[in-house]
Amino acid sequence: MDLSVIIPAYNEAAGITSVLERLRPVLGQLSVTWELIVVDDGSTDRTSEILRGVDWIRLIEHPVNLGYGASLKTGIRSSEAPWVAILDADGTYPEQMLPELVRMSADADMVVAARTGASVHIPLIRRPAKRFITRFAGYIAGRKIPDLNSGMRVMRRSVVEKFFHLLPDGFSFTTTITLAMLVDGYRVKYHPIDYHKRSGKSKIRPIYDTMNFLSLITRTGLYFRPLKVFFPVSLVLFLFGLLVLFGSWHVFGRIMDSSATILIMTSVQFLALGLLAELVVRRSGR
Predict the structure, then answer these.
(1) If we measure between CA atoms, which residue out of 74, 85, 90, 67 comes closest to residue 20?
(2) Residue 253 Ramachandran class (φ > 0 left, ψ -120 to 50 alpha, else beta)
């Protein structure tokens, strides 16, 4: 077995059948041996019933809803293939692009289907937050990231398993594996794709998941590149300290030396912590 294709599904009765119908001939075009693993994540609609009637897939069922990332990890753990591909069950990704991603993986550790094609349907309300999160992650990684959390990609299983202790059970799985591979120096490629309107209702919670993504990127940055997190905080505190020092003289006619000193000293402490954390990370080999 060369490739395991993993589809996590939670209450996707409206679209899972059409996704499988489109995917089967695409898998037949692959030049590698493959299997399709569908992980039903405790669905409460007819998803499990539909999947049990499909005899050419390997179905794994969670008794309760554990999360998107947990479903992917279940599929990856049950796979013995050296490569895994993931694909959402909502019909938003072009299944026909899978052979191209597999071809590109010959000299990469991960190939991401980047939603940067001619037709990309991402709700307007999610675009500002998505753009900010992607740029923040790009700053941590030190390179531009075309798509941070695409749900369609091909990955080397051994590399993904190396980061299992970092990968969350929720929607942040793809964000974390992208950032972890980039900052740890693995070969990551991107291929532009179109992104269609989904079938059924989205499971994304815009405010909660956006805050969760930001928290996760910060934690990942602290784990791999701590100075990139500590230095901006230190710089802001230092500049604010200078602003208080000189601004208080112009506004109040006296220098607020105690407040300015506390801010500047705190900035120095943050910088020292960042340097120390960076040294620990480098010595540990991460």
Answers:
(1) 90
(2) left
Whether residue 176 contacts residue 167, with contact meaning beta carbons closer than 8 Å, is answered with yes
| Closest CA relative to residue 83, chosen from 155, 153, 29 | 155
- For the ranges 20-24, 72-76, 128-132, 143-147, which has the lowest average pLDDT? 128-132
Q: Which residues pair with 6 in a beta bridge?
A: 37, 86
Residue 115 phi, psi (nearest 5): -80, 70
Query: Are the C-beta atoms of 43 and 12 separated by less than 8 Å?
Result: yes
pTM of the model: 0.81
Distance (Å, whole) CA 185 – CA 242: 38
Sequence ranges of the domains in the chain: 3-224, 226-284
- Looking at residue 231, its amino acid is F
150 close to 174: Cβ distance less than 8 angstroms:
yes
Q: Per-residue pLDDT for 266 more than 90?
A: yes
Sign of the alpha-carbon dihedral angle for 47, 52, 54, 56 = positive
- Name every residue whose Cβ is closer than 8 Å to that of residue 185 and which is 6 or more positions away in sequence: none
The CATH topology of domain 3-224 is Spore Coat Polysaccharide Biosynthesis Protein SpsA; Chain A (3.90.550)
- Least confident range from 99-103, 104-108, 173-177, 261-265: namely 261-265
Q: What is the mean pLDDT of the chain?
A: 88
CB 217 within 8 A of CB 179: yes
Which stretches within the chain are classed as H helix?
16-28, 47-52, 68-78, 98-104, 127-141, 157-162, 173-183, 206-224, 226-252, 257-284
Amino acid identity of residue 217, one-letter, is I
The Cα–Cα gap between 219 and 214 comes to 9
Q: Over 90: is that where the pLDDT of 123 sits?
A: no
